[in-house]
Design brief:
Arc Repressor Mutant, subunit A, 59% helix, mainly alpha, homodimer, DNA-binding
Chain lengths: 195, 195
DNA sequence: CCATCAATCTTAACACCGTAAAGATTGTAG
DNA sequence: CTACAATCTTTACGGTGTTAAGATTGATGG
């Protein structure tokens, strides 16, 4: 399939992928550089030709998972015209991603070193949040929300979605209902015609 | 102060306390059984007389921190008559606790093994959530909210508070405003007279 | 009062971990 | 074909959790 540039396979890519599948199957705690190397049939120091240390491998794995995350988020709102519906779909997709892969939440938000400056909304350092903001602001504009309250509404929305995902995947919270229902509890999404 | 039952001090208690302070000062990642033992001036296997393994020590530490957490939460609403004000104060205290001790969020919700069944609200297995629910339900009743929507409102509220705490302490989110402001974005807390 | 016992702590050993240094292998460029 | 650089292996070191065995000591009962 892919080119095998040197005497062994494309190790860098294989390390990232088996590292991710190891976390999926065995959990974050039982991840180790040496186990990943062993599963790739290389010596335990071979990874050091591709990554400075284990944190760099984890960072690369994090980027890979974030890309999958972004893919899911993008697809969820693809072609959706109603901007209010879009933000609900996006929130549901956000939560669903971590329900499908319970290990990812802890992995992503524990090891990634993400820093988001909420005082400076033009900094798009974390892609999922950037997409979330774009989609939310589009809706805020469409319903004529005063621009001064954009940031508050955005943070409230994202915190709730993020909090639900956190509780679901890290603290054994179980709930049989539809998470989407909760978004309507926010004033911005509490449409008049639904009342 | 406390009894010193055997040839050395009250090691069990000292292990828990120095373990917690180690996490506070050096971070969750650099915590280890051997370092805690060393800081207590005992051999690295002495803790095994008090804990079956390192996870049991961590669990004991978690319980201790949860008690501190509950203490802060209780004090925050002590003597507050206005139930709507109480839930805001409680949310603020929840967030403030993790702002004051940034390492605690990851420590508490990563290692504690908390399980909360949101389909069965009478299970008070996690004290902070039990207090949150009691306070919230008291407010819901006072404003005449239909009982059917209690659970939705509660989860929305707690998820948002928990999500803010998560973003603040694990993902380098910074915000100079007052977190309390966000609670009013929920329909239940969006009082008519403020509009 | 002292022998016994159980709780507590220490020493030694093991497997696993991340990492560094040195050398072997091999694709590629001059 | 020779030199070089990228890649991988071997070896070694200190740190980690855990177990097993033995030492120390507070408490108990004859």
């Amino acid at each position: 399939m892919k080119e095998k540039p040197y005497h062994h396979g494309n190790l860098r890519k294989q390390l990232i992928e088996t590292g991710i599948s190891l976390i999926n199957e065995e959990g974050v705690k039982s991840f180790s550089l040496r186990r990943v190397a062993a599963q790739c049939n290389v010596s335990h120091t071979a990874p050091y030709s591709h990554f400075k240390n284990v944190d760099e491998l984890i960072a690369a794995m994090g980027e890979h998972v974030t890309e999958q995350f972004m893919e899911k988020l993008r697809i969820s709102i693809q072609g959706e015209e109603d901007s209010s519906e879009a933000i609900s779909l996006l929130g549901q997709a956000y939560i669903d991603f971590f329900i499908e892969n319970p290990q990812y939440f802890q992995f992503l938000f524990y090891h990634s070193g993400i820093t988001i400056d909420l005082d400076n909304y033009n900094s798009d350092n974390y892609p999922p949040f950037a997409l979330f903001r774009t989609t939310a602001y589009h809706m805020f504009r469409s319903i004529g929300l005063p621009e001064a309250s954009y940031s508050h509404q955005l943070i409230a929305l994202w915190s709730m979605v993020h909090g639900i995902a956190s509780l679901l995947t890290n603290n054994g919270v179980r709930y049989s209902g539809n998470w989407r229902d909760f978004f309507s509890i926010l004033t911005v999404l509490d449409k008049e015609d639904d009342k």
